[in-house]
Amino acid sequence: MNEAKLHITDEEMKAYINNQLSSHHRQHVELEIQLCEACLERFIYWNSVVELSSIPQSDQAAEQIIHSIETGKQRKKQIWIQHPFAQVVVAASITLLLVGTGAISVVSSSLSSLEETKIQDRVEEQQEVEGIPLDEEEPYPHSNSDRWMDKAASWLDTLHSIRFDR
């Protein structure tokens, strides 16, 4: 009779699993589960029952899926500029506008002149340090892009002469 009193009741086990017991009562239940094999079996049983009851039934699961799909449709619509295709179209339009108006050629020529002045300044500084007078025919050396262009042109001339001047 005392042994029946020592075992944990079903209500206590449910409250323990749902974390609804006070800390003192919780410690008592944990000790009983560790010491009593029958209470351990009950704990395993009730723990699996609680886990199974937390799994939605098929009707409930279907309703939850339908609800999530419906709320997904109600999401805020994207602004047209956030769409990747729209971003590509805008970038292409800006590029065509710049090419059509000649703005790119203006920018590239200004960058080229800036590069030339920077190279000229470096050459003058170097010549001042070394004490070499400036060459009057060519005040500054060609830029890298000019040299690459010259090499490509000479290469194309060589190919042209090989192919067509047999």
Textual characterization of the structure:
With 166 residues, the chain is mostly helical. It folds into 2 domains: 2-57, no CATH class; 89-154. It has 8 helices and no strands. Helix 2 crosses helix 4 and helix 3 (23-35) packs across helix 4. The chain is elongated. The mean pLDDT is 76. Residues 120-146 are annotated as: Disordered.
- In this structure, how is the largest beta sheet organized? none
Annotation, overall tally of beta strands: 0
User: Radius of gyration, rounded?
Assistant: 42 Å
Shape annotation: elongated
Helix content: over 70%
Q: What class do helices, strands and sheet pairing give?
A: mainly alpha
Mean pLDDT: 76
Low-confidence stretches: none
By DSSP (H or I, 4+ residues per run), the number of helices equals 8
Run of helices and strands: HHHHHHHH
Write the layout of secondary structure elements.
Blueprint: H1 2-6, H2 10-17, H3 23-35, H4 37-54, H5 58-73, H6 84-101, H7 103-130, H8 144-164
Keyphrases for this structure?
single chain, 166 residues, mainly alpha, 8 helices, 0% strand, elongated
What's a quick, concise take on this entry?
The protein has 166 residues and is mainly α.
